[in-house]
Amino acid sequence: MINTVAIQGVIGSFHHIVSQQYFDEPVDVIECLTFDRVVDSLITRECDAAIMALENSIAGSIIPNYALIDKYALHVVGEHYLDIQHNLLALPGQNIKEIKEVYSHPMALLQCKEFFKLHPHIKLVEDKDTAEVAQRIRKHELKGIAAIASVTAAEIFELDILAKSIQTISHNETRFVIVKRSNSEVDETCINKASIKFEADHKRGSLAAILNVMSDCKLNLTKIQSLPIVETPWKYAFFVDVTFETYDDYKKAKSIISIMAHGFKVLGEYKKAKV
């Protein structure tokens, strides 16, 4: 039973929206301004689970979060895709010509880069969280300052939407994962996706051989992300997501890859979400 969930950001953030959509029952949220704080609240048992964004369809992978999940041996127990619509929010009664600065998370700024090329008078400033900026604007009645955030944040903090859906590509999705301290108790018959990590030998064809095993065992590779191994320069670990029709196919592949690869680790086995 999950009662409390840690999120990066405050109410009105996209992580908060995921907490409302993913769980069948209402959950309490612990607001955290950094992902390090999210993980800390999980491992110190302040919460039952945590929500972490892993990749965006426009901006790509959030690599530090892969490293956090791996470093603290967290387990992915589920995933959720959220349609991300960015909106320009400010105190009521202003127009876009009066906005001098926009504060937002670097990922949000990156996703809205083309919009701000049309408004070169606006200075872009990186911040920790989208909704937290909206909260700050309302709390301190900051004029001339705008946030990039959700419609939910606009409603909660009573801000005007100066421009809707300002992201560069209209279809903009982020994949979030739900992580816990221990592995899920999902029945094998319901598991059809897994996240794994391994290191390949630093020689020709070693990665290809592992990928061929996945193919031969009827696994569908949906994501591969390399991450440098800090202790060993120019060597990389691979974070891989696979989907499959039967758990037996995955189980066979897992047993073979665990022999072929170094540092093999299962990060999570769960039910894939609808995209």
UniProtKB/TrEMBL annotation:
Pathway: Amino-acid biosynthesis; L-phenylalanine biosynthesis; phenylpyruvate from prephenate: step 1/1
Gene Ontology CC, one term: cytoplasm
Keyword Lyase: yes
GO BP terms: L-phenylalanine biosynthetic process
Keywords for the protein's UniProt record, in alphabetical order: Amino-acid biosynthesis, Aromatic amino acid biosynthesis, Lyase, Phenylalanine biosynthesis
EC number: 4.2.1.51
InterPro entries: ACT-like_dom_sf (IPR045865), ACT_dom (IPR002912), Preph_deHydtase (IPR001086)
Molecular function as annotated in GO: prephenate dehydratase activity
Chain segments annotated as coiled-coil in the UniProt record: none
Catalysis performed (reactions): prephenate + H(+) = 3-phenylpyruvate + CO2 + H2O
Domain of life: Bacteria
Protein's name in the database: prephenate dehydratase
